[in-house]
Amino acid sequence: MSHLFLRLLWWALWPVVMLVTVTHPRLRGAWAERLMVRAPPVEPGAIWVHAASVGEGRAAEAIAEAIRRAKPGQVILRTAMTEAGLRSARGHDV
Questions:
Q1: Closest CA to 78 of 70, 65, 69, 29
Q2: H-helix or E-strand spanning residue 50
Q3: Reduced to 3 DSSP states, what percent helix, strand and coil does the chain have, rounded to the nearest 5?
Q4: In angstroms, rounded to a whole number, what is the distance separating the alpha carbons of residues 6 and 11?
């Protein structure tokens, strides 16, 4: 029963979450990519590593580095849900 309640609550709050995300200056950036509404272009055969935040992104970078050593030239796409995580995945200082 609580699962149903939480699901209904999420669907009721979704428009508010989207409105805040689209209108807030700090969150507006790449919201569609971060929330997976729109996926970034991915080359066939690429390995996609997605993290929720900067911390997970740093762990994902270790995995991506191991893949690069094992398979030189392998295309790796890194994405994240938070703006700071996305900046980190793109190689910018956080």
A1: 65
A2: strand 47-51
A3: 55, 10, 30
A4: 9
Type of residue at 62: A
Q: Are residues 51 and 24 in contact, defined by beta-carbon separation less than 8 angstroms?
A: no
**In this structure, what token pair is assigned to residue 38?**
């729109």
Unique residue bearing structure tokens 């030239």: 73
Residue-wise pLDDT tens digits, 41-92: 777 888 888 888 888 888 888 888 999 999 998 988 888 877 777 777 777 6
Instruction: Name every residue whose Cβ is closer than 8 Å to that of residue 50 and which is 6 or more positions away in sequence.
Output: 60, 78, 79, 80, 81
Residue 10 identity: W
Question: Encoding tokens for residue 78?
Answer: 């890194």
Is the pTM higher than 0.85? The answer reads no
Question: Are the C-beta atoms of 51 and 85 separated by less than 8 Å?
Answer: yes
